[in-house]
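[Automated response] Your request has been received and processed.

Submitted sequence:
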Amino acid sequence: MNIRTLTAEDLERASFLASHAFRRGGETIIPMERWMSPDRTRIGIDHDGELAACFSIQDFTLIFGEELYPCGGICGVMTDPGARGRGYADALIRRGLEIMREKGQYLSNLWPFNFSFYQGYGWDWTGWYHDVKVPLSMLKSDSEAKKVRLVREDSWDVLADVYRQRASRSHGAVRRTEAQWRAKFGKSDGRERLIFLYQFEGNAEGYAFLRYDSEPHKGTINEFAALTPRAWKGLLGALHNMSMTIDDATFQLGMQDDIWAHLVHWSLESKRKPDAMGRIVDFQAALQARKVDTTISGTCTVEVEDKHASWNYGKWKIEASNGALSVKKSTGTAGVSLDIRSISQAYWGSPSWGELESTGRVVVRNPADLEFLKSILPAKGVWLQDDF
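Generated structure:
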C-alpha cells in the first residue's frame, strides 16, 4: 500500500471524495490556496490508478494555561465510496501519527464524524461546552451595558488580547493568527455578525459574538469571553437590549462559564455537548513539555497502552524536580496502568482523574503513584472556540 504526499494535481479528485464524505454528494469546492497551504500536510492512497483516500494534518498551536504546545489538527479524512473497507483510512491514520511525531507535534485534535471510530485509534473527548437557550428579555438590564460597543475588523487585536487572557485560565484553546481573527468578522450564513466589546476605563474585559439565525427572531452567541463580573453584567445587559429583534438566543459557553450565576429560570434550556477529541501523539515529549509547580517533587512509574503508536507503548518512569518533568523508559513495576486515551484526557484536564477512575479507565497498583500523577496533571477546564 503506497502512501504518498498529495499535490495540486490531486485537487479535483479530492473535491470529488469530499463531496461524498461530507456533503452527501453535493458539490464541494476546495480553493487551491487552501489545498496547497503550507500549514497543511496532505497524504493519500491510490486505487486502480486514481486517488482513493485522503488524510490531512493542519498545523496548530494550543494554549495550555501560560504554555504553548504544537498540535496536529486531523481533517479531511475521506475515502472513495467504492474503495471503502480496504483499510485505507487505517493506514493513513497510522502514517499521520508518524508524521506528527516527526514534525514535533506531540498533541493532536480532531472533530469526529463518529466518536467510537476515533476512540479506536487513541483519541478521546477532551472537555465539553454547553448550549443554553435564553429568552433575551429575561436578561437583566444593567448600567454596565453603557460600556459596551460594537467593534469591527480593525479592532481584532483588542479582542485577541481578551481571548488570550481567557484562554490562559483553561486548556486547549487555539492560538489564533491575525488571518483567523480577521475571518471572524465575515458573514455567517450570509448574515452580518455583531461583535460586542466591554471596556472598563479603557481596558477590554470581555466580548460576545452574536449571529442571527435563519429562523426568525432567533440568534446564537457562538463565542463569549468575560474576564470580570462587571464584563458579564455589561455583555448580558447589551444582549438584553437586543430582545426587540431576537426573542431567544443560544449561548455556546465553555465548561467554566456559568450563566446560571446571572440568570436562573425554568424556561432556560441547557444541553451539554462534547468538544473536540484529543490525543497524545508522543507521550515522552508531551510530558516533558509540561511545566509543573516547583514545589512538586517525586517519581512514579506508569504503563501506557497504545496500539497505534509503538513509541508510546510500555512502562515509563516520570520524575518531577524544579518545575520540570523527566520521562524515561522503565523496567520497574508500574503503579498505574492506562491506555493512551485515558492519559490524553488527563493531560487536557477533562475528564478528571476521579471520573476516569470511576469508570474503570485506570488500573491502580500503587495509590501514591496515582496521587503523583494527579499533582502533575491536575483537573482543568477546557475552553476551545475553534474547529478545523
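Summary generated for your ticket: Residues 142 and 237 are 5 Å apart (CA to CA). The first strand starts at residue 3 and ends at 5.
If you did not submit this request, please reply to this message.
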